[in-house]
Amino acid sequence: MRRSRILGTGSYLPARRVTNAELAARVDTSDEWIVQRTGISARHVAAEGETTSMLATKAAERALEAAGVKASDIDLIILATATPDYTFPATATQVQHALGITKGVAFDVAAVCSGFVFALSTADKFLTSGSHSRALVIGAETFSRILDWEDRTTCVLFGDGAGAVVLEAYDAAGTREDQGILTSHLRSDGRHREKLFVDGGPSTTMTVGHLRMEGKEVFKHAVGMITDVIVDAFAATGYDANTIDWFVPHQANRRIITASADKLNIPQEKVVLTVQDHGNTSAASIPLALDTAVRDGRIRKGQVVLIEAMGGGFTWGSALFRL
Ligand code: UT7
Fold this sequence. Notes:
By secondary structure, the chain is an alpha/beta fold. It has 2 domains: 2-171, 3-Layer(aba) Sandwich (Peroxisomal Thiolase, Chain A, domain 1), CATH 3.40.47.10; 180-322, Peroxisomal Thiolase, Chain A, domain 1, CATH 3.40.47.10. 32% of the residues lie in helices and 26% in strands. It has 10 helices and 13 strands. It has helices at 20-24, 31-38, 52-67, 91-98, 115-129, 152-155, 215-237, 254-263, 275-278, 285-295; strands at residues 2-12, 16-19, 42-45, 76-80, 105-109, 134-142, 160-171, 180-188, 196-198, 211-213, 246-249, 304-311, 315-322. The strands form 4 sheets. The protein has a 5-stranded mixed beta sheet with strand order 1-7-6-4-5, sandwiched between helices. A 4-stranded mixed beta sheet has the order 8-13-12-11, sandwiched between helices. The protein has a two-stranded antiparallel ribbon with strand order 2-3. A hairpin with a 3-residue loop joins β12 and β13 (315-322). The longest helix is centred in the last third of the chain and has 23 residues, at 215-237. The chain is globular. The two termini are 17 Å apart.
């Protein structure tokens, strides 16, 4: 059976770190409120002129280095973002160019905070079909550019960053002991657009727009949607809360992560949390958290990792893999 496995991870954060105290000087908020309600203490913000493709390229270079793979060996790039450099071309093509790759194919996927799970699942399907052999899967965002910095209900929540993985197709035994992606589950439901969206776009307002969110409404749906797709991942593989090694959730809010883990009986020691340092980096949050825990030695080769995300659309999804 053909499977795709992760050979290396990488990530990149812009240099500028913005603390809650700094935001409290700009809008009516406090470090105490932000930490209590979200778990966030700081986030990174891209410099002027620092684009999503630049963050993505740096994360991709680090993932290639960790994987020991040359850029010229990549024949598929899938980049998840809701904050592309331009309306078109796809930001993935700019990363492809920056890495000096002229073969294969590069394209973007738009699933907002679920983007990395959607991109990973899509890459897995390309690689296991036999059409491509080595992929870069990237989540990269500059949400600072679509935030309304006067709106305290949203501007304290998000940050910029990028994360990437290198995936390779290989012939596996076809058991749950295999390395690589063992299952993925994607969902969407467009009825919820107005609960989390950007109020601009080329065919509506001809402007970029700002992020708008009914936070409480999103929160209400999040835990149920997250747990549903995780139950699907457990059912498809036979793994469960006790037999997975790590849970690397989308990092939107510590309370959502804790509630989801509790509902599924996943012990908090297995949960990778980076929301305190990164805020919600949308499509970048899972690969950023994954790379953090791989590089600090927590997540090791051979271990079983569960990822999940939920975001605008709504979109939501899960994947389970052995590193
Ligand atoms: O990644 C995509 C998915 N997105 C998410 O998962 C986000 C989901 N939602 C959330 O994480 C939470 O709903 C928030 C963190 C956005 C808000 O937390 P909450 O516990 O749901 O608070 P709330 O919206 O009910 O607001 C409570 C109070 C309100 O004041 P009143 O009406 O009680 O007087 C808000 O106006 O807190 C006020 N508030 C703030 N106060 C200080 C809202 N934002 C702030 C702020 N600082 N930044």
